[in-house]
Amino acid sequence: MTHPIFTQLHKGLIVSCQALEEEPLHGAEMMVKMAKAAEAAGAVGIRANGASDVRMIREQSPLPVIGLIKRNYADSPVYITATQQEVDDLISANASMIALDGTRRSRPGGTNLEELIAYIHARGLPVMADISTLEEAQYAEQVGADCVSTTLSGYTPYSLQQEAPDLALVQQAAQALSIPVIAEGRIWQPEQAVEALKAGAYAVVVGSAITRPQLIAERYVQAIRKFG
């Protein structure tokens, strides 16, 4: 049975409210403000990084929060909700859904993806698997993910490298899978979000183009410098 959260997310905008430690807007209080602004604009969900951010956004916004924790490990390239510890932290923070790396890459300490998904399900939460290829999307569905997101396309060395969103992957996955396919990654224009939905996306996640002002400003600066 499809989790009730998907009814709310269908054909809507999920805003990724994240700021890295070295970025000006880093901190839960700032991300709450970003989430409230997204809510006011009509977003249907929030994607947030870190237990403190997830907890505070959940306390102050009625929108579902897709939680993840980015953490680097020496023994694995996987950094998005890589182990049970991150899962436990997100559950404690009252995340509505947990996003994790859904690739076949080795996980820290030999963590098993299928077991991790089962662990999350046993605690009543759905799972969003971040993938970079069609094969990974099919694998994630096979091991129990409730939906997949194209988040990692272009961020694994073997996936398509391009500046535009990977709409081909969205379309291929939407045709091949029976679970929702969420479009995410390098969506900078509203028209691209619409194209993702036309390609079969169940919903669209947009982050940098909305919530990372230093990157937004940088695009303008680069364009002006090229003109000059």
TrEMBL record:
Keyword Chloroplast belongs to the record: no
Recorded superkingdom: Bacteria
Protein name: Putative N-acetylmannosamine-6-phosphate 2-epimerase
Catalysed reactions listed for this entry: an N-acyl-D-glucosamine 6-phosphate = an N-acyl-D-mannosamine 6-phosphate
Family of the protein in this entry: Belongs to the NanE family.
Principal EC category: isomerase
Pfam families found in the cross-reference section: NanE (PF04131)
Protein source organism: Paenibacillus cremeus
Keyword Aminoacyl-tRNA synthetase on entry: no
Spans through the membrane: none
Example GO BP: N-acetylmannosamine catabolic process
The protein's Enzyme Commission number: 5.1.3.9
Keywords, sorted A to Z: Carbohydrate metabolism, Isomerase
Gene3D superfamilies documented for this protein: Aldolase class I (3.20.20.70)
